[in-house]
């Protein structure tokens, strides 16, 4: 029967697309750490050899040949022998591209297991790059290329859906999306006696997602029993996504080990010792036994004499099963701080640039972007104190490193790699916003530039006056709507050009070794992008936007949390300030307001965004939903914070939202790449694919149907009041 105490390992790896040798080095390091901890089985993330986000590079034959070359190097490295390995990579088999797990032992391949259910929703496009394996529990032969055949001592290995049988147990593999399907492979595996199941994932971060992921992973063994190993990527591997790690080991529905969700460690290995007897006992339920006995889902077992639980280990009384633990889940404000901070550090160090620049407006959005950069600096300095060698090397490259002295505080690091710039206008910019920007810069330590753009604005405006003999005026000065917009957009676009100008020259002007340039960060939140409440090619146009898929309410939660946790009392002023673009002159009777300009509140924008994307509602269906949710006639119950509107008001708001969404949709095609944080992001690149030229919504059949429904509702309401 063999021993019953098994030490297993899973990991978070910060891989980078097509970083062949770097990715391989991190894989090998994780194997070494797993072996040092006594593990006999190691599982890594999905597509760990290439990096998950290679996208259309998966169409290139080089990607498949280089992956095999990296596998060959790994198999020849004897330091990786003596442990079962579950490696993620793409495989070209009979001219079909597969997303595979390669199960190896002592320099030999035991099985190539292709992914069966591909992720093809939201940000995922696996069906564009791979073919699913459509034959459950079937295998065939894979013809090895010469370099692998020589190592294998054979020309073929098994390819397909099978499991590995050791003297004491059996383990099988499923990949990422397969866990989330209604009939996941682990169900049939468990009924067929497989006791250890590995899951290799490329699962990206969104706010509040971890709890859902945890429940699904824990549920995988809560009903059927077993040991479940979850591996994931962690970090930015070259795309808009942050992979949030959280490698974990679950036994019979209980977490016994959990890795970090956010970290600057390139390699993090999670190990646990599990007792296989606990799995056997957990599966003693009669109903479970009857289902297993009558199941026709029988897996081919590939035999190996390698012991996962050597009998000698049972005599080692120092070895004991790892105890269950409570899952660690960060509150949403902390998720924003940590995900944004870790993502920005990966992007900065891998881009080879000199730092970041943020245009500060004195409002909460640009404030949040700046505080996320400050969070990055805090995370980096914590890693430096912990002795993280890679982080220390990156800090040395980015900072003035003289006489072996590194920055000692987040503020010192911030001052070297982060610039904030306030670009004011004498008539439009208030003393309050200028002061708030200055106070924030002082608190976080950024290098701050305070300037006015009036001269540039007047010169550009004069170009129109001199050319067409017409002087545009603001609305408060008697100008038309088009004149007002022209002058607002002119200021906004001057700020974008100015931000890039300073971003390119400041590292040289400040004497940074090697010069270089700063990456410009954007600060348009998800609601403003969805509504189109921004100027095309203004400061929303940047290199990266860390808050581009976060709504105003969550940004306020983040700033309120950071005020206390980061000890930044100046943030209180940002929380109480009225959101304003400050693109129109301030008068005694008028101060521009974002929500007044938009004709809806930020809370309403969030609701519209969620119903449009997550609930998949068009204008008519959204009206049908909100006319009940926001009904002025409803009785308020505990927890009900929705507004009270008449049916006509609801109709007007829904129409207004879709009208502005449609006419501004073209702005999404040039939207700055944003860190993906929400499932209703309007990102046009790959997440929210829509046209950008719509027929007028006010003439549409959808709006006519709203009017018909409104008429029916009003008649019914009127009859009730008689």
UniProtKB/TrEMBL annotation:
It catalyses: deamido-NAD(+) + L-glutamine + ATP + H2O = L-glutamate + AMP + diphosphate + NAD(+) + H(+). PROSITE patterns: CN_HYDROLASE (PS50263). One of its GO terms (molecular function) is ATP binding. Its EC number is 6.3.5.1. Pfam families: CN_hydrolase, NAD_synthase. One of its GO terms (cellular component) is cytoplasm. Residues 6-276 form the CN hydrolase domain. It is an enzyme of class 6 (ligase). InterPro entries: C-N_Hydrolase, C-N_Hydrolase_sf, Gln-dep_NAD_synthase, NAD/GMP_synthase, NAD_synthase, Rossmann-like_a/b/a_fold. Gene3D superfamilies: Carbon-nitrogen hydrolase, HUPs. One of its GO terms (biological process) is NAD+ biosynthetic process. Keywords: ATP-binding, Ligase, NAD, Nucleotide-binding. Pathway: Cofactor biosynthesis; NAD(+) biosynthesis; NAD(+) from deamido-NAD(+) (L-Gln route): step 1/1. It comes from the Eukaryota. In the C-terminal section; belongs to the NAD synthetase family. This is Glutamine-dependent NAD(+) synthetase.
């Amino acid at each position: 029967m063999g021993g019953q105490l098994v030490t297993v390992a899973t990991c978070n790896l910060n891989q980078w697309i097509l970083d062949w040798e770097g990715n391989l080095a991190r894989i090998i390091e994780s194997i070494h750490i797993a072996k040092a901890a006594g593990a006999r089985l190691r599982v890594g993330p999905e597509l760990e050899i290439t990096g998950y986000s290679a996208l259309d590079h998966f169409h290139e034959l080089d990607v498949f040949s280089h992956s095999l070359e990296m596998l060959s190097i790994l198999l020849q490295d004897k330091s990786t022998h003596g442990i079962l390995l579950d490696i993620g990579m793409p495989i070209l088999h009979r001219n079909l591209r597969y997303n595979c797990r390669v199960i190896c032992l002592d320099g030999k391949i035991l099985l190539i297991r292709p992914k069966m259910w591909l992720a093809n929703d939201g940000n995922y496009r696996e069906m564009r790059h791979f073919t699913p394996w459509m034959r459950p529990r079937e295998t065939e032969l894979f013809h090895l290329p010469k370099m692998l055949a020589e190592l294998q001592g054979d020309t073929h290995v098994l390819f397909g859906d099978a499991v590995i049988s050791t003297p004491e147990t059996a383990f099988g593999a499923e990949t990422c999306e397969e866990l989330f399907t209604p009939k996941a492979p682990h169900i049939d595996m468990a009924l067929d006696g497989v006791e250890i199941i590995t899951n290799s994932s490329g699962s990206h971060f969104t706010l509040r997602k971890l709890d859902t992921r945890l429940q699904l992973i824990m549920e995988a063994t809560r009903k059927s029993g077993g040991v479940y190993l979850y591996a994931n990527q962690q970090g930015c591997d070259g795309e808009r996504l942050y992979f949030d790690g959280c490698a974990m080991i679950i036994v019979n529905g209980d977490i016994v080990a959990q890795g970090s969700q956010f970290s600057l460690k390139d390699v993090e290995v999670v190990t646990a010792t599990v007792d296989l007897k606990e799995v056997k006992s957990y599966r003693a339920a009669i109903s479970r036994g009857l289902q297993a006995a009558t199941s026709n889902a029988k897996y081919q077992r590939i035999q190996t004499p390698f012991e996962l639980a050597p009998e000698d280990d049972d005599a080692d009384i120092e070895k004991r099963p790892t105890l269950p633990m409570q899952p660690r889940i960060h509150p949403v404000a902390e998720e924003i701080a940590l995900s944004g901070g870790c993502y920005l550090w990966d992007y900065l160090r891998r881009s080879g640039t000199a730092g970041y620049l943020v245009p500060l407006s004195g409002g909460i959005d640009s404030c949040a972007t700046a505080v996320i950069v400050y969070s990055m600096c805090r995370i980096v300095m914590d890693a430096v104190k912990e002795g993280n060698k890679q982080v220390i090397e990156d800090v040395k490259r980015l900072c003035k490193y003289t006489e072996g002295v590194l920055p000692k505080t987040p503020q010192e690091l911030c001052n070297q790699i982060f610039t904030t710039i306030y670009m004011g206008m004498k008539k439009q910019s208030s003393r309050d916003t200028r002061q708030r920007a200055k106070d924030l810069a002082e608190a976080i330590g950024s290098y701050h530039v305070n300037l006015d753009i009036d001269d540039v604005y007047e010169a550009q405006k004069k170009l129109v006056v001199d050319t067409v003999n017409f002087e545009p005026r603001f609305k408060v000065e008697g100008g038309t709507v088009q004149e007002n917009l022209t002058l607002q957009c002119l200021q906004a676009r001057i700020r974008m050009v100015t931000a890039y100008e300073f971003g390119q020259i400041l590292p040289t002007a400040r004497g940074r070794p090697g010069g270089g340039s700063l990456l410009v960060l954007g600060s348009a939140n998800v609601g403003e992008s969805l509504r189109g409440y921004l100027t095309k090619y203004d400061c929303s146009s940047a290199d990266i936007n860390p808050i581009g898929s976060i709504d105003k309410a969550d940004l306020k939660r983040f700033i309120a949390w950071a005020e206390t946790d980061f000890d930044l009392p100046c943030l209180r002023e940002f929380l109480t300030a009225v959101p304003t673009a400050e693109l129109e002159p301030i008068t005694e009777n008028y101060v521009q307001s974002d929500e007044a300009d938009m004709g809806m509140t930020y809370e309403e924008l969030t609701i519209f965004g969620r119903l449009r994307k997550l609930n998949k509602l068009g204008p008519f269906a959204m009206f049908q939903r909100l006319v009940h949710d926001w009904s002025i006639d409803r009785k308020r119950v505990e927890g009900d914070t929705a507004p009270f509107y008449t049916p006509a008001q609801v109709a007007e708001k829904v129409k207004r939202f879709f009208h502005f969404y449609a006419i501004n949709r073209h702005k999404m095609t040039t939207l700055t790449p944003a860190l993906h944080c929400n499932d209703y992001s309007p990102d046009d690149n790959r997440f929210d694919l829509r046209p950008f030229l719509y027929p007028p919504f006010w003439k549409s059949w959808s709006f006519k149907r709203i009017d018909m429904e409104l008429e029916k509702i009003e008649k019914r309401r009127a009859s009730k009041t008689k």
